[in-house]
Write a structure and sequence with these properties.
Elements: E1 3-7, H1 12-24, E2 28-33, E3 52-56, H2 62-70, E4 74-77, H3 84-89, H4 92-112, E5 115-121, H5 147-166, E6 170-175, E7 177-179, H6 188-197, E8 203-205, E9 211-216, H7 217-230, E10 236-239, E11 244-246, H8 247-257, E12 266-268, H9 283-289, H10 298-311, H11 313-329
Helix pairs in contact: 1-7, 2-4, 4-5, 6-8, 6-10
Length: 332
């Protein structure tokens, strides 16, 4: 595939994928991104101009999407509204971007017969009990619990329907929680890291025992590229790195990396509908496509992430006060 369109390619996970593609293939990448608050041109800094082209636009607008899809070999669809708290306050943008935007892209891929990969989330499956040994698999029934996860579930169903009804050459991946460079500091791990850098106590929702299955974004990128290149059309692949940690353990690990006491934590009011546990079984991806994570050691990946935020304060500092003010208004 010589030409790839990456939607949301200036956001956190998308930009890391663009860096990965440039480093590991010879493909030219066109990035389509709306450049909302959670994405930035700076996330693409340093990439060769002859390999990466940025187009600012909305994936829900056919006049923007169609000519771009027509000019590439494949579409990798990362673009999404993804903040759960924001979806509780205003679901509208989540429906427009995640559902209408995916529909618009699928129609263009259908018209021009393009390879299509849809990047989704494990949150479409709802959550698991803390004492339940099960993990999500490709056969787990959908049970979304927020407007965000419901909108992503809807987009997944659209992709499957377009494969079956119209023969679109598409695959889907549902990934566990990502961490790594370029993640907006409203998100859990970078918020805690930057709070500790600023000498404050990190804040935890509720009892802090909610479990997430963490994966470094570099590992997510390598998995998506493997699916794009070798995945079977119509199939869904779950991406995970066996990184189950509860939120309390993650914050304690961050404090340890900074030489701070593990009990320097402020507990705040839990968020509405907070899922208790996510866990991914990624055996299909590993066995069929031969994929393995580079950061199987969560602590090593966390240290690399801390080092990145410490070295790139100029990137996140301008947004820090506004993020904390927003959380403070909600008592969090």
């Amino acid at each position: 595939m010589d030409r790839i369109l990456v939607t949301g390619g200036a956001g956190f996970i998308g930009s890391n994928f663009v860096h990965h593609v440039v480093a590991h293939t010879d493909a030219h990448v066109t990035v389509l991104d709306k450049l909302t608050y959670a994405s930035t041109e700076e996330s693409l800094a340093g990439l060769p101009e002859d390999r990466v082209t940025l187009v600012v636009g909305d994936i829900a607008e056919p006049e923007v999407v169609e000519p771009l899809v027509a000019g590439v070999d494949a579409v990798v669809h990362y673009a999404a509204e993804s903040h759960n708290d924001n979806s509780l306050e205003d679901p509208g943008p989540f429906i427009r971007t995640n559902v209408v935007g995916t529909f618009t892209l699928l129609e263009a891929a259908r018209k021009h017969d393009k390879r299509f990969h849809h990047v989704s989330t494990d949150e479409v499956y709802g959550d698991l009990e803390l004492d339940d040994p099960k993990r999500f698999t490709e056969d787990t029934p959908y049970n979304p619990s927020s407007p965000y996860s419901a909108s992503k579930a809807g987009s997944d169903h659209l992709v499957r329907a377009w494969v079956r009804s119209f023969g679109v050459r598409a695959t889907i991946s549902n990934c566990s929680n990502n961490y790594g460079p370029w993640q907006h500091i409203e998100k859990f791990i970078p918020r805690q890291i930057t709070e500790v850098i600023d000498g404050r106590r990190p804040r935890l929702y509720g009892d802090g025992l909610n479990v997430r299955d963490w994966i470094h974004t570099e590992d997510h990128s390598s998995a998506v590229l493997a699916i794009l290149e070798r995945g079977q059309i119509g199939e869904t692949y779950l991406i995970g790195a066996d990184g189950e940690k509860n939120n309390l353990e993650v914050v304690q690990a961050i404090l340890r990396h900074f030489g701070r006491s593990e009990d320097e934590i402020e507990f705040v009011r839990d968020r509405a509908g907070h899922d208790r546990r996510y866990a991914i079984e990624s055996g299909k991806l590993r066995n069929q496509l031969g994929w393995q994570p580079q950061y199987a050691d969560f602590d090593a990946g966390l240290q690399a992430t801390i080092d990145w935020y410490a070295a790139n304060e100029a990137w996140w500092r301008p947004h820090k006060d506004a993020v904390e003010a927003s959380y403070a208004a909600k008592g969090q």
